[in-house]
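Lab channel / #folding
Pinned by the channel admin:
"Please post every new chain as: sequence first, then the C-alpha cells as a reply. Keep commentary short and put observations after the output so the thread stays searchable."

First post following the new format, from NK:
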Amino acid sequence: MSIELALEVIEKMLLTAILVASPVLGVALIVGLLVSVIQVVTQVQEMTLTFVPKMIAIVAVLFLMGAWMLGMFTEFTIEMFRVAFAHGS
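Reply from TO:
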C-alpha cells in the first residue's frame, strides 16, 4: 500500500467518523447547555440532572438518524474492501 493510498484511507475514515458522531455529540451539547441554563436560572445545582435529558435526546437522535449512520458505515466499509481488493492487499 502506498503512502498516498494510506493517507486517503485515513482521511475517509476520519471524515466518516466525524460525520457519524456529530449529530449525537451536537444534540448532547445543546441539551447540556439548555439544562445548564435552566439550572442557573432556577438555582438548582444538581449535577445528575443533565444525565436523563441527554440520554433521552441521544436515544431520539439514534432512533431518527440510526439508518443514515449505519448507511455511512456500510458505504465506508464497502469502499475499504473495494480499495483493498483493487490493490491486492
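NK: The chain is about 85% helix and 0% strand.
TO: also worth noting, The two ends are 7 Å apart (CA to CA).
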